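Why do we care about 3D structure at all? Because function follows from shape, and shape follows, mostly, from sequence. That is the central idea of this module. The next example makes it concrete: a single protein chain, its amino acid sequence, and then its structure expressed as tokens.
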Amino acid sequence: MTFDRIDLKILDILQRDATVPVARIAEQVGLSQTPCWKRIRKHEEAGVIRARVALLNPDAFGLSLTAFVMVEAVEHTADWRASFLAAVEALEPVRDVYRLAGAYDFLLRVVVPDMASFDRFYESLTATVRLRSVNSVFALEAVRTTTSLPLSEPQAG
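And the structure:
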């Protein structure tokens, strides 16, 4: 899918604040409301806009510990991968799962209230699926986080 300068502006506005009214977005990108709304709908239908969500502060819910868990697979088969993904899907603290290239096979972002909760998560993970190794690091502070993508305007050729 290709995006023109107006698409990129619309998408950038929405990814930073999905509550901005269509009228204001249209004004900012130089369109009337209907064409702007049609572009937004087109991107939703195409899956470019995956969801519109509210981002919550984890500290407000006592979820003050973020861990990054690197997992090395015990084997590299479709069956093992399916069982691993099913196991992590069932674990509520797992927020993100990335398949990696390199020394580790998967990276999990885990959010829990405290170290005791992390230990329970770890016990559940290792009891559910066979792993070659697990290496966890803990965030001391979220210095910078963002959910927005680095959108840039198309370059002139």
